[in-house]
Each structure stands twice: as C-alpha cells, then as structure tokens.
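User: Fold this, then the next.

Assistant: Folding the first:
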Amino acid sequence: MTATVSIITGILALAIGFYAAYLFLSRKSTKARTKANQIIEDAKKQAEEILRKAQEESARLRMQMLSDIETERKNRIKEVEYQEKRLAEKEQLIDRRADVVARKEQELMKREKNLEHREEAVKAKEERYTKLLEEENIRLERISGLTREEARQILLDNVKEQVKHEAARIAREIKQKAKEEAEREAKEIIAYAIQRCATDHIAETTISVVPLPNDDMKGRIIGREGRNIRTFENITGVEVIIDDTPEAVTLSSFDPVRREVARMALEELVQDGRIHPARIEEVVAKAEKEINELIKKTGEETVLELGLPGLHPELKKLVGKLRFRTSYGQNVLQHSKEVAYLAGIMAGELGLDPQIAKRAGLLHDIGKAVPQEYEGTHASIGAELAQRYGEDPIVVNAIEAHHEDVEPMSPYAVIVQAADAISGSRPGARRETLEAYLKRLEKLEEIAKQYDGVGKVFAMQAGREIRIIVEPDKVDDEHTEDLAEDIARQIEKEVKYPGQIKVTVIRETRAVEYAK
C-alpha cells in the first residue's frame, strides 16, 4: 500500500513537473517570439534607413557627376576657343607675311622693268651716238681735209668722254636706288627689332667704394702693424686704398669678380666689427661661395629667360660671370642679352631660326668672361670655348666673326654683327674717354685729307659724321660718290668704332662777278 502510494505520488509529482515545465516553456516561447518580431521590425527600419541614405547618396553622386561633366564640357569649349583664336592669329600672321612677299615680288618686277627700260635707253643712245659719229666723220673729212683715221680718232675721243659721263650718271642712279631700297628694308627690320627689344639706356657700373660707419673703422681695417689689411689683400688679390676720403675706403682690382668678393667681405667685416686674420679668411671664403652661387644662378636665369635649352653648364657659368664685366661702361651681360633679343627678332623677320641667332648673340662676348691670362681676342677665345663645349659650327663662326676677324659663313654671323652694333651704339650705352674721342676725330680727318681734291674736312656729331668739302675744279659731280665710298671703306679698315659713321662729300660751284 505504501509502495502504491509512493508510485502514485511520484506519478503525480512527475505530471505536475511536466505541466510546470510546459507552462514555463510556453511562456518563454512567447517572449522569444515577441523579441524576434521586435528584432525583425528593427531590422526593417534599419534597412529602410540604409536604403533611404543610399538613395540620397546616389542622387548626390549623380548631381556631382553631372556638375563635373558640365565643368569639363566648359573647359573643353574654352580650350577649343583658345586653339581657334591661336589658329586665327597664325593665319593672320601668314597672310601678312604673304602680303609682304607679294609686295616685294611686285617691287622686284618693277625694278626689273625699270632696268630693262634703262638698258633699252642706253642701247638707243649708243645707236644714236654711232649714227652721229658716222655723220661727224663724213663732215670732218669734207671740211677739214683730215684723213678718215685722224677724224675717227678725234670723234672717238669726244664720244668716249660723253659716254663715260653718261654711263657714270646712269650707274650712279642705279646704285643709289638699289642702296635706298636695301637701306629701307634693312631699316624696317632693325626698327622693328629695336621696338620689340625695349631696354634701359643706362648701363650698370661696378662700384669699388665701401662706406664706413666712422673713420675709426679705418684703423681696425689696417690692424696692428698692418696685419689685417695685408691678410685681406693677400687673400682677395684686391688692393685696399685708405685715403682722406671720409668714412669710406676704395677697392682696386682689374678683376671685377675678385673686387666684388672683396666688397662683400669687407662690408660684412665692418658690420660685424670683428676684424682679425682668422675672421678675414672665414668671411672671404663665405663671400667667394656666395659669389659663385650668384654666378651660377645668374647664368641659369639668363638661359631660362632667353629660352635656350641644352647650354653646357660651363658656358652658363661664364654667362653668369659676365654680370661683373663692363666694356666702355656697358654691362656685358645686359649687352649680351640685348644682342640675343635683337638677333632673335631679326632672324625671325628674315625667316631664319631665332634660337640659333639668340644663342650666338648671347655667347658672342663670352670670351670676356675668362681671365686675362688667355691669349687672343675675346672673339677668338669665345669661339674656342663654344667649340670646346659642343656648340653648333654656325654659332662658333658667328662668335668669331662678330668683329670681322674672320669671314662670316652664314646669315646668323651678319645678324649678330648688326645686333652688336645696334646695342653698342645706341645713346647712353657706352662711355668713351676724352683722349680716345679726340684721337678718333683726328684719325677721321687725317684719312679724308689724304685724297686729292679734298679742301676741308669736318668731323661732326661726336664722330658719327664726317663732312668733306672738295675743290670743284679737281673733283666733278660724277666722282663725288666714288670719293665718299673710298673714304668710307678706308675708315672701316683703319678706325675702330661702335655703330656707323656717315661720310658726306660736298661739291659747290661759285659764280663771282663784279658790277662796275
């Protein structure tokens, strides 16, 4: 009985436990289902939010792409418009040059026709003289009783003299017209080049005076028993002149680069106040380094400014040294840049390569950048340097021929000669000592007085013009031009001068009569 009760009790407990477990599990399943539904709802909301943001981002990206496409389209349109504008400008330039060529062809045709007419006129005159000669021969034989050979000789002498004067007149007219045409075209090219090349008329000069804060500084520069000034002069190779000039000392040297190093070093020593041999060596070394860097930078900037790639580094350094060189008071670097610009413009006008012309113009005075120990003229030294560093033979010849030491082998050499003369002879470009100026005037007058028939000679316009008055009974009108040309050629050979000298020959005839 007890066992049965126990079993029943166990069964009931087990049933109650199963029922309790069922109730617990049912309640827990409901909570899980509720939580799952909540998670699903949250996931849906998040998905909707993500979808909304994705749609907004997609719309923003689409608008950005449309904006970028529109910007690119506008840029392309601007580029096309710019290219069309450049093309139109080039077409205009080609049209202008075509007009110039056509005009020159027309002028050439007119000149040829004029020459043909002149030749026909000369032939007609020769035929007329021949006919007159025959008539004169017959008349002389009949009147004078001379033999035909004697009469012919007299007539030939007369006709020769007349033909000689006529031929000289025609030749002079043709030569004058050709000269005027050539001068006009040359002046147009040169004037255009000068207009394009706008440079200052004032040339830089090298200053060798160092200002001092007071005269007591002179004693510190000299040092005890002169050791400071001796050290400074030995290191720099520059002479320091300390005189009565208040608050200043003068630096003297034939080498402008050394003088510039000395000037920079002395200014720093004066400003620093510590002046002794060790400090002098340190400051001079620093100044040399700065000057070398300045030379290198100047050469590179000049080459970049002129647009001349491929120049050897040593040539660039020599170009930079020209900054400290002067010739007749004219800074050689500025002169070389000016010649390069002028040569490039004239080469472009003549249909040549402006790069070669500018290269030759920049390097034409490169021989002036080397020390004085080099032997030879600066033109020959410059040509040798250019050849050594791989420059084109055309450039080498232009450098060597710019003072007519050798024969020009290309048009570029002639262009460099012209550009050099323009740059050197423009107002204010160069200085000339009074002694050299007077000697040049005396030489000009002396050359002109050597010729027969020259009465008086006057050098004018600061030696830019020479006027010659001839004796009218010794020099006729036909020979005045020949005399002017002969004197001009002799001046070119014997006188060195920048630019050109105008030779004017004057012949006047005076008629004198007295009233009684």
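Now the next one, as you asked:
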Amino acid sequence: MPEQKILVNLNVNNIGPHNGINQINFSDEVDSNKAIFYASNGTGKSFISRAFRLTSDDKFGSNADDLLTLGQSSGALSLKIANTATPIDEKKLSISVQRSTPPGVQNDSGFIFHVFNSDFVEENIKPRDYTPDGNIEGYIVGKIQIDITEEQEREERLKGEIIAKDGAIDVIVDNAKEELRDKGIRSSTTEFTLIEKERLRQNEVKDSVQSFKEIVRQLELLKQLPEGIPDVNDPAISLNASVFDEITELLATSYSKSEWDGEFVSYIKKHRSFIVKGLEVFNDTDRICPFCKQSIDDVALGIIHSYKAFLADKEAEFLRGIEGKISAINEIIENIKNFCRETKIANAEIIKLKKYFPSLGNTTLAIPNCKDTAFDCFNGIISALLNKSDNLMNTDFSVQELVAECKKHTCNLLQLQRNNSSIINTVNRTKQNTNAERLQLRRNLCKAQYLKVSNSLFTQFKEIDSLTLELNGLRHSIIEKEQQARISKKEKVYKTLEYFLNKFFSGKYTIDRETFQIRFLGNNIGQKATSILSDGEKSIVAFCYYLASTHLCLSRENDYNRLFFIIDDPISSMDFHFVYAVAQSLRDIKECFEISTYVRMWVFTHNLEFFSIITRNHIINRAYVMKPGKIELLKHQLLMPYENHLKDIVDIASGVQQPSHTSANSIRHVLETVSKFEYPKKSLQTYIAGNEMLSSNSCIFTLCQDLSHGPVRNQPPFSTDVIVTACKAVVEFMEVRYKGQVDALQPRVVNGVA
C-alpha cells in the first residue's frame, strides 16, 4: 500500500526538561510515521516515552508528578496526526499532568500506544527475576470467513455521519465561545467552561437567568454608571419605650390636690413656659419686669411670689412630670415621622441604582406606617395624661391596651430599621464594588449562553445519540460474528517470545510454553535467571518480552493496524551483535504482527552507533536529532560519533564552547575508542592508569565513570574548571598520539578564507 503524506505535530511543555524556551513544538510532513530520534543524555527523551506510557490502561489513575518539570504544577503532551489528503480527519492525543492529581488522557487518535523504556523493564520483568509472566488470560477476536462487508461499510457510514454532525456542533460551540469573548468574558471565568460540548449535552444549568440580550444590555448600563454617587443614607430612629411604663405608673398614682385656687392653677398650667422663664430672669431687688422693663408694684410682686410658691409645690412638680411625659410621646411621634420620610428618600435612591445594578432588582426597603391612624395609640395616651393633669386624684385610666399597642409599634419600627439597615449596607457594598456586579453579570451571561446553545443543539445531540446507539448495535453484531474465531493471547505471546528469543540467542535460551520460564541447556532456570544472564542478555529478554506483550494490548485482530510503538533505548548494556539484532527486529515488526497498513514507530536513543545502523540500513528513514527546545531533521546519512565527541572536547579545551552534561560522556567515548583500537582486551581503567598523560589528571576516569553513568543529581558534582582541565589533558594526549585526528577537526584555510 503506497504511503501518503502525513502531517505530524508534537508539543511537550513542563514535562521533564521541556520547559519555557526549551519546550518542544515539533511539526513535520512525512511519508511514514516511522522515525528515530537521537538525543544526548539529559535531553528529555525518556520523559516523552513515559508520558506516552500514561495511555495504557494499567496506568489509569496513577500519580505522574515525577514527570513534571521541577517547580511546575502542571504539564502537557499533545500529538496530532493528519493525512494531508483528508486533514479534517485529524487524530489527536492529549495528556495533561496536574500535581497531586491523576493525569488526564484524551486519546482520540484511534492508536494503541505500546511503550518500551526503563519503566517497562522495572515494572514488568525485573521484579520477576527476568522471568516473563505466563499467567495470561483472554483472547483476541480474529478474522473469519463470514462476509461482514456490508456491516462494516454501514459502520463506516455511521461513523462518518457522527463525525460530521459532531464537527458541526464543534463549530456552534466555538462560535458561542467567541461571542462570549467578544463581550469581554475571559476564558478563566468558571462558568465559561460550561460552553463545552459534553457539558452542553448534560443540561447542567437548572436555575433560570435573564436572556443573553438582556444581560448584555445590563452590562452596557453598568459601564455608564456615573462617578461619585454617594452612599444611600441609612435612616436611624431613637425610641425610648421605657416612658410607657413610667406613664402607666404615673396614671395609676393618686395625688391630693393642694389649696390653690382652681382658676389660678389653670392660668399657670396654660402659661407655664412663660411664667417659668420670667421667674428665671426676674430680680427681686430691681423690681423691674424683665420683659416690659416697667417697675413692679407690691400687688404684682405678690402675684410673682404666689407663682414661685406654686411652682415649688408638689402639685406643680407632678404637673411638670405629666408635661414631660407628653413631650416624650410627641418626640416619639416626631421621630417616627422623620424616620418615615428618610426611609422613603433612601428607597428612592435605591430605585435609581437599580438601573445600573441588576442584582438589586428585587431590593426594596420596608416603609413604616405614618398615617394619622398609626398614632392613635400615642394620642390616646396623651389624652389620658391631659385628663390626669386636670384631676390629679383620678386613677381610673384604662391605658393598658394603648401602652401595649405603642410598645408593639415601637418594637416593630426598631426591627424594621435593623432590616432596612442590612439592606442598605448590601446596596452600598454593591455600589462600591462594581467589579463584583460585573463578574456576576458575566457569569450569568455564560449561563444564558449555555441555555441558548443547549436548547439549539438539543435536536443535534438526539440525532448523534440515535446514530451512536445504532452504531453500537452494529458493532455488537459484528463482534458476535467475529467471536466465532478467537485466538489465545497466551499462545500468541508465547510464539512471539519464542521467535524473538531464538532470533537473538540462536537456541541458547528458550522459553517454557506453560510456565514461561527461561530455559538454559534444556532446564528451567527460574530465579537463577538474574545471576545466569548477563546485563546485555537481561536487556534482550526484556525487549523480547516487550515485543511479545504487544498482543496483551489488543482485543481484536484488526487492532494490530492501530499499534503505535514508542521505543526508548532498547540496547542498554548490549554487545554490538545484539545491537544489530535489535535493529533487525524493528524491521521484522510489520511481518511479525501481520500489520496490513502502516507501521507506526518512534524510536529514541542516545547511542550513535545504533542510530547509524537504523538509518544506514533504511530500517527507519526519517531520522531526527533532539536538542533542548527543538527536534531537527538529520541532514547527514552517515554518522561519526567518535569524531563529534572529539570535536566537543577540543572546543571545550580551546574555550569555543562551555562544558555540558554530555562532556564526560564525550571523554569516555573518545578514550574507549582509542583504547579498544590499541588494546582490545584492556579495560578503560587499566588503559588510563597505564598512560602517564591521562593518569596525571586524577579526575578523568572519575568523570568517565561518574558523570557518564552516575545517578541523577540536582547539583553538579564537578566544577566547570575540572571538566575543562580534563578536556585539555585528553586533547594534549590525542595531539601526541593521534595528532592527525585533532588536525582533521580544524577548518581548512585557503587564502585567508576558512
């Protein structure tokens, strides 16, 4: 089948070292989705493979915090693949990682990602002493002779209809989001997330809001709010209810009338204020009237003395008390009337604010009753007091009901004032915080948009549900027919594992069909595998099991065409002939798994020899180099790792470039290449110790061992100067032993031009 052009996009951010300016934004148009990526240690290739591994079912709900860049709380990987001939049918994978939260995986690609990396080895075969797990159950539904072509064609038509209708809904949803953004709604607003396809389908919003158009109008009104509008005044009222109990006691007390003439007493009661004021300013010595300034004769002076005597009498004192109570009642009446007027004014101010603040729409103040009849109880008490002043001995007053009514009225007024005060405080806070009002309107606008779009999509959702139901029924029918042919997963895993073990070991190691134990010289070695197998052989067994375990990822035979292999450094600790065998195994994947369409495979490695074997033998033609923040297409078909490593050392020694995390690896590669050339059987340690120029630098071998294969560190164990000094020592050694190698790295200069 001829391969068509494919557009591939890979984005990785805040995963491992892929952060900030070093995040990956890779895109390329390719003939095949087979690629190999070379990346030096620390570039972050393993983080990418580990992210892909989150797509497997056994990773569902697992913690992935260790994938995040240090200091970051979230990260993401996304993959998009589209055939350039049909770009609308884009295949998508989205992986999001939030700290302390299970990762989110949205796999709409249709691919089954099968990942090999060190984590696969640590979790699946190393804990079992490199004995593959033979407890395998289940079947793969195979192809059968029954003709299901018509059902499959109908299945494809239904999927096409669903995709088309789903796409139309996506357009409507996107337009609805854009309309909200045009109205100033930020995507970070919580209610904005309501405008998502699945949430629109669920009919989440139950509470009603005003129409979209009306809320937009209210937002525009809020923009027109004048500056400097004063707060709404909070009317206060002061009511002394204790006076009623004092009045009750006063009316119930009998006072004996004094010997004063009734007409005289009546006159004083009528003109009390004038008389009291006059007596305050009158001077007996001057005998001059304080008002008319005329002399006062003896008769007038006698009357004045009578006034003084009466006012000093008990009866006068009691009459003053009655007048005081009447004044107190009148003051209460006036306070109530003032409170009523001020409350009406405050309510009018609130009505004006409602124009700008829709949230105040139902806000109103309770207006106290200020009708004349509301004061009947107060006036009744005043009448009783006046009657009492006319007859101080009278106690026959039935004012209990009037007093109770007055107390109830004042109590109700005080409660009304407290309620109104709370409402006014809320109004003033709303007026002062226009941002909160605006935010609430925007939230309501999102809800209104949700209701509008949800109603408009009701029919489309029903149609998709109906088509999906029909599709599921059809698929069930197809599966029932396919169930007539089932293939044992255990048998498939066994045969594939046997095939690849024989490919690598040529019969040295085999596999027991029942127990899946490794067999050596015809015997099951069981837990001894850890001690019998070399490190390279362990890596081979792990890789063979990975290939064989592919069958465990599938449920139907057609799923082989959905496989996407992600392979990270499969050649750790292997001899060269094993490395070559791994490369050939990658070539065999299509045939081994009977893949009838395309082989999808991404291979990551930091081994240049393996990288070179893959590309030179056209096992994978698309080759890339991964660097911090980018992935570049390899421009050279033949690779010379030794030469590149030597050039890095020379550049560091001469100050052209600074040391990096790969510098120690370059030193090791160059010295191992030279030592194996001179003395194939000598170890690197022996070779360095036997050469004075190299052994005089005590850090060279430590750098080779520690920084080339050492554990992960948060801080560098060696300073830059130490690495530079080591590079200079190695360059000096190479210039003495193999000067031509160093000279070959220098650019040729002809007539002063490089």
